[in-house]
Design goal:
It comes from Stylosanthes scabra. InterPro entries: COB_C, COBRA_pln. It is a lipid-anchor; GPI-anchor. Keywords: Glycoprotein, GPI-anchor, Lipoprotein, Membrane, Signal. A hairpin with a 2-residue loop joins strand 10 and strand 11. A five-stranded antiparallel β-sheet has the order 6-7-4-10-11, with no helix packed on it. Strands 1-2-9-5 form a four-stranded antiparallel β-sheet, with no helix packed on it. A two-stranded antiparallel ribbon has the order 3-8. It is α+β, with helices and mostly antiparallel strands.
Length: 199
């Protein structure tokens, strides 16, 4: 009889512990956003040099209760085969096909930014990537500079459709410059400079 009661007490204790553990698991509390995602991966074209271009990646956590430890970010982009330097993330190329190197995995530096804190001032991690331009294939037309696919911790992120990416103009319209316009502009600049000196 004593064994049956102790077994019953043990089952009740196990059930109480399970209930307690489920109460301790944080339920998501998200910042109100239009996309309702836990994180945002921001890809920003920062600089466009003659032979290189620089991209800034920021991962922002919108969950007020959840940290992401040992997070990873997988990006598919045609120019990842020309990565020159990654500044504050670790980078490892992924080669699903030996001839094509367009996929890479990024993750945080240990003890520096491998923990993505909950929403707030410290709820983001960011890095910059410097990539060499391949003159034969490089272009900023039609959203080429943006990733094809993005995965955060193994879950695919939704990307906007390619036709919603910003377009860069091919060239600016050229206005004919007349010698009289240049002369008038230089006279005005000299006069304006002289007026400032006199004041």
């Amino acid at each position: 009889m004593f064994r049956k009661e102790s077994k019953l007490l043990q089952e009740q204790e196990d059930e109480r512990i399970k209930t307690k553990r489920s109460d301790m698991t944080p339920k998501p509390l998200l910042q109100c956003t239009h996309h309702l995602c836990h994180v945002r991966v921001h890809w920003h074209i920062k600089d466009n040099y003659q032979d290189y271009w620089r991209v800034k990646i920021a991962i922002i956590n919108f969950d007020f209760r959840l940290n992401y430890t040992l997070w990873n970010l997988v990006i598919q982009h045609p120019n990842l085969n020309n990565v020159t330097q990654v500044y504050s993330f670790e980078y490892m190329p992924l080669l699903p096909y030996e001839a094509i190197n367009d996929t890479g995995m990024f993750y945080g530096l240990k003890y520096y930014n491998d923990l993505l804190m909950e929403n707030g001032p410290k709820g983001n991690v960011q890095s910059e990537i410097l990539m060499k331009k391949d003159k034969n294939t490089f272009t900023l037309k039609n959203g080429w500079a943006f990733p094809r696919r993005v995965y955060f911790n193994g879950e695919e992120c939704m990307l906007p459709p390619p036709d919603s990416y910003p377009f860069l103009p091919n060239s600016a319209p050229r206005l004919p410059i007349r010698a009289s316009s240049v002369a008038a502009g230089s006279i005005f600049a000299s006069f304006f400079h002289l007026v400032l000196i006199l004041l």
